[in-house]
Amino acid sequence: MSKSKVHLSVENIGGIDNLSTSFEPGVTVLAGRNATNRTSLLRSIMAAHGSDDVALKGDADEGSVELTIGDETYTRTFERQGDTVISGGNPVLDDPDLADLFAFLLETNDARQAVARGDDLRDLIMRPVDVESINEQIESLQQEKRDIADELSTLSNLSDRLPQLERRRTKLEDQIEEKEDELAEKEQEVEEYDASVSERQEVESELESKLGDLRSKRRDINDVDRRIETEKQSLDALESEEDELEDDAEDLPEVAGGRIDEIESEISRLRTRRQQIQSTVNELQSVIQFNEEMLSGTSSDVVDALRDADDSGGSVTDQLLGDDQVVCWTCGSEVDKSEIEGTLERLRTLREDKLEDNRAHREQLSELEDEKSTYERRQRERDRIERRLSEIESERETRQERIEELKSDRSDLEDEIDSLEQTVDELESEEHGDLLDLHREANQLEYDLGRLRSDLEDVEDEIADIERKLDERDELEAAREDIEDELAELRTRIKRLESEAVEEFNTHMDDVLDVLEYDNLDRIWIERTEKRVREGRKKVTKSVFDLHVIRTNEDGVSYEDSVAHLSESEREVTGLVFALAGYLIHDVYETVPFMVLDSLEAIDSNRISRLVDYFADYADYLAVALLEEDAQAVDSDYPRYSPA
């Protein structure tokens, strides 16, 4: 983005009624006392970039911010609707999170406050890094690994069944060999018998024909038996699968009826409540800011009154102030200044309580969304099982119908066989009774042999199928090893990204500390460790970023200290150093044209001057709010702006 003069128009934001001003590229110093709308001006700049850390003027229902940079104009609108404020327009940034963290460094900045509170800094440091996509890859690979493990478990069971099938195959082969020998002997007897009989050729020919038909029908009935057996095996497999699915369904924790709806309702309620709390926080900020300005006499209304009093020769100050008394601008009575200050302090405390409520609601939302995801996953699995059980029931009915049809066919064949046997009985003569017996025995042997061969074919098919699947085991194990390697690489990548981020933060915090030149604050550094922490209802291992401080005592001895032991001003300095380091690490200046600085009172004026000079080389536009005495130490070439 080219560096050119920018124009800003503000209406009904914070304590500002209407404002139109311009900024030159580089540093702009907003000099003046506290409660002079400097922070409102900075928040207006932030709002133009897309930040929601902005409040409507307390007595306004609509507000807007317009920022023109070169040929581009960016507009944000704000409208009060009930207890919430709805924003619209086209900001400079589509996603202002990075800027809110590391470019818009007001006193309430999350990065500065997180350090002051002693929070874990990992989320803040890694938020701009695309770790989420890596975690999604890890989850996908873990699911793939679980699927492979299930397949390997199934193959292991098949492998255990293989020796049993091989023994069954050997036994069937032996039985077939015995039956073939018996059938050969029986056929030899028939041939010998036929050779000895020379009469009644016609009867024998018809008898042979009927016996042939009888053999054919027996083969047909054998085929029907095989098909019936196949259908029964399929039924057994369906029943086995059904039992497994029912067991799986029983193992699934029951999803309470309507629980997902309750969770969704609670999530919606919490989100609405968070919006209401944020609106309340914004309103409180406006009220606090307005009353601070009224109390300090810098409100535009008070300034106008002072100007009128000067013109008339009177003194508004004499009318409003006297012996620590002020005229209340809400009720018109005289009250102690300390009472109003006490009320302001309670309002500030209330604002902090609301912010804490908002954080608590955010944690509740996270837990509820995890619970909802778990319930939905269970419900999807239960639905899948129920669908498959329904399919099994339908398929089972179909196969039972086939079995009944085959049994009917078998019954018809038995009737035909009975008829053929009756015909054979009528045709047989006393001297051919032995021949008939031989044929019947041969038919039975053929039938038995066919059954054995069919069983052998089924066993061999099952063995071949198992062996084919077992051949895939090496591929599955290799795939699992590849997934484990990829998972290790992804986890290592996250750790590497975390380590690199920590290292860069430490380097840049050293650079910022070098600029500030503190004698008793040698180093601020972050240590990455892994700890067991609670996440929702379970404990997981997560990376934790701990902040350490190296100090020097009066004797010149360095020692490590914690943020909790620092003074309030030292914590503020530490939080600012951390936030400024984030600005440098993530190259925020490449995508965010403005950098804003406020609440630098914890740093002396000379250090503020060096800090401003240092970051002037990075930000296209740097707006810094300073007290008059601190502004005097900053380079006089920087443009000054004093809000009315």
Pick out its properties.
644 residues, alpha/beta, Rossmann fold, five-stranded antiparallel sheet, five-stranded parallel sheet, 14 helices, 16 strands, Rad50/SbcC_AAA, SMC-like protein Sph2, P-loop_NTPase, ATP hydrolysis activity
The parts where pLDDT drops under 50 for at least 5 residues are 312-323
SSE order, as H and E?
EEEHEEEHEHHHHHHHEEEHHEEEHEHEHE
How are the strands of the biggest sheet laid out side by side? 2-1-4-5-6
Assign a percent range to the helix content.
55-70%
* Major sheet attributes: 5 strands, antiparallel
CATH topology of the domain at 1-118 and 587-643: Rossmann fold
Residue fraction in strands: 15-25%
Mean of pLDDT: 81
Q: Could you tell me how far the N terminus lies from the C terminus, measured between alpha carbons in angstroms?
A: 30 Å
Radius of gyration: 44 Å
Shape: elongated
The CATH C-level name of the domain at 1-118 and 587-643 is: Alpha Beta
The fourth-level CATH homologous superfamily of the domain at 1-118 and 587-643 is: P-loop containing nucleotide triphosphate hydrolases
Structural class: alpha/beta
Q: How many individual helices?
A: 14
Describe this structure in words.
- This protein is an alpha/beta fold and 644 residues long.
- Among the domains are: 1-118 and 587-643, P-loop containing nucleotide triphosphate hydrolases (Rossmann fold); 257-306 and 324-385.
- It has 14 helices and 16 strands.
- The strands form four sheets. The protein has a five-stranded antiparallel β-sheet with strand order 2-1-4-5-6, covered by helices on one side.
- Strand 8 (321-322) and strand 9 (325-327) form a beta hairpin.
- Helix 3 (110-117) crosses helix 12 (568-585), helix 6 (201-251) runs parallel beside helix 11 and helix 11 packs across helix 12.
- Mean pLDDT is 81; it is low at 312-323.
